[in-house]
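Margin note from the TA: students keep mixing up input and output lines. Inputs are the sequences; the output is the structure of the whole complex. Example:
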Amino acid sequence: MNQLPPLMHQFVSHFGEMGSRWGINRTVGQIYALIFVSAKPLNADDIAEALEFSRSNVSIGLKELQGWRLVKLKHLPGDRREYFEAPQDIWEIFKSLAEEKRRREVEPTLSMLRASLMETPGNAADAHAQKRMQQMHELIDLSSTWFDDVARLSPETIARLMRMGSSVKTVLDMTDKLKIVRRKNEA
Amino acid sequence: MNQLPPLMHQFVSHFGEMGSRWGINRTVGQIYALIFVSAKPLNADDIAEALEFSRSNVSIGLKELQGWRLVKLKHLPGDRREYFEAPQDIWEIFKSLAEEKRRREVEPTLSMLRASLMETPGNAADAHAQKRMQQMHELIDLSSTWFDDVARLSPETIARLMRMGSSVKTVLDMTDKLKIVRRKNEA
DNA sequence: TCGAATTTTTAGTAATTACTGAAAATGTGG
DNA sequence: CCACATTTTCAGTAATTACTAAAAATTCGA
């Protein structure tokens, strides 16, 4: 790890430190960071050597990164070993990550909430609890459906939307007015 | 905990189980869930008793929840104890959570990236790494600025935007055309 | 300011998670 | 299908994190 060039080293170390906040461990964070910034696909031994981790630790880390769909397996011609690389398109990465996060961190809660909302509360406390769960369900459902929809747009469109910032409101208001005018004209 | 009515119990247990995936621990998850679904503010003893946790564990958990700005401290007249409740407005909750997450999980990385981008790479590997960091910085910066902007909109406007789903694209295209027409007219 | 109620800190312990080296399993070219 | 290169699993250990009970500190009314 110490023979990595300075920028790579800084990036890798940072991902190691942040790992725990992001719900992955130091090792997995560093492995991903290394793969992300490397120009060429890396094999497990490359990684173990560069980061000074045991070979088995790298193996487990790579499995986890595959589970997150953050690294792609690649085979180089004339080499039996498995090589890994990160998708080139950063939007692609962002979307996989978001989808996977939703699957793991949001969907289970949505299911639980849906189930709870089907039941009939047996007392006042549960009745209130159900109302709160209803509110939570509504918000999560709305934002996660929305995310899905937006993720389907092209990166360019998404970027365009984002660059608009809060002026989307103006656009929204404008289209509402257009709709009203159209409705009047039709009448 | 077992004398909680069924819906509350289910909700609280679920938050306990999900806690670790969300980067908080079981205890903190359950404490929050209990406060969230309760009709009235709760004090630390209420919580310790309901969930069968030690008093100190509850104290630490509440501290953490305050750090996340997920619970508000409230004082009841004629009672010296501290009571806690979750904000009523679910959008408020969503925003605090997102802001806090950004502050802890995103900002440090943005800083690191910015610093790295200022430096001059000393070799080809670092030059490539810097390009990747540039891509990452661009995406994170764009989406986090955007989130800030959107968060400033009213809940109604946000909901309206979200309900549009992927048809925002149509609106975006439409406004682009309007701008072009206007530009032509002005010329 | 004293003292009881309440909260916070702390030190020790339990539980969980991360990591390693070695052994087992897998897969592939010959 | 053998031999070997490579990956995966596993059992043991290290490190971290969570939790408790008890002590200390704080707060506030009298």
